[in-house]
Each structure stands twice: as structure tokens, then as C-alpha cells.
Design a protein that fits this description.
Layout (H helix, E strand, L loop, with lengths): L1 H21 L3 H22 L2 H4 L1 H19 L3 H44 L1
Helix pairs in contact: 1-2, 2-4, 2-5, 4-5
């Protein structure tokens, strides 16, 4: 997870630098960065198994990203940024749920073994 977050952070910083050098409008730049951060976080959530373990929050994150993309295309940059930020939060929540459920699934056999060992005593 830390590795994914470092990659997300590095990508966002690279985008910020490239926009800073290109002279784009500030609200357009901010919206574009927020969109990219949302895409990266959704990708990280998918990579952690959110499609299996947190399908609904992931679906909400994708819907928020789609809303942000449409607002950006309509040049409603503040609305696009807000929707993209929502997508980021939803994707992070989906990733957190997915990671917890995946870890619980991996621990389930060990918990059963401990429970069985306690009964034997």
C-alpha cells in the first residue's frame, strides 16, 4: 500500500510540475490534477481487490470520476475538482475496506486453527 501511495504521490507531483511550466489556468490545472489523483487512487483500489471486496464504494468512486470528467469537458473546473476529490475519498475508502477484508480472509484459517487448539486443551 505504501508503494502505491508513493507512486500516486510521485505522479501527482510530476503533473503539478508539468502544469506549472505550461502556464494553464489555475482552476483548470487544479481540476486536472484532482482528476489524475482520482484515477490513480481508483487504480490502486482495484489493485487491492476492491472489485471483489468493496464493489459498491469502488462503483461510487468511478461514478464520481465520470461526473468529474464530464464537468471538466464542460469547462466547469471547480465542479470537476470537487467531484474528483470525492472520487479520491471514495476510492481510498474502497481500498481500505478491500485490504481489511482480504487480510481477514487470509487470517480465517489461522483463527480456526487457534479455536480448534483451544477446544483440545
Amino acid at each position: 500500500m505504501k508503494r502505491n501511495m508513493m507512486n500516486v504521490g510521485m505522479a501527482v507531483m510530476a503533473l503539478a510540475l508539468s502544469f506549472g511550466l505550461s502556464g494553464c489556468g489555475r482552476s483548470k490545472q487544479n481540476a486536472s490534477l484532482a482528476l489524475e489523483e482520482a484515477r490513480l487512487n481508483i487504480s490502486a483500489a482495484r489493485g487491492s481487490g476492491a472489485q471483489t471486496y468493496a464493489a459498491e464504494p469502488l462503483k461510487e468512486a468511478v461514478a464520481a470520476l465520470n461526473k468529474a470528467d464530464k464537468a471538466f469537458e464542460a469547462m466547469k473546473y471547480d465542479m470537476a475538482k470537487t467531484a474528483a476529490e470525492s472520487a479520491v475519498q471514495l476510492a481510498k475508502a474502497a481500498q481500505e475496506v478491500a485490504e481489511k477484508k482480504a487480510a481477514d480472509k487470509k487470517l480465517k484459517p489461522a483463527k480456526k486453527a487457534v479455536k480448534s487448539a483451544k477446544r483440545i486443551r
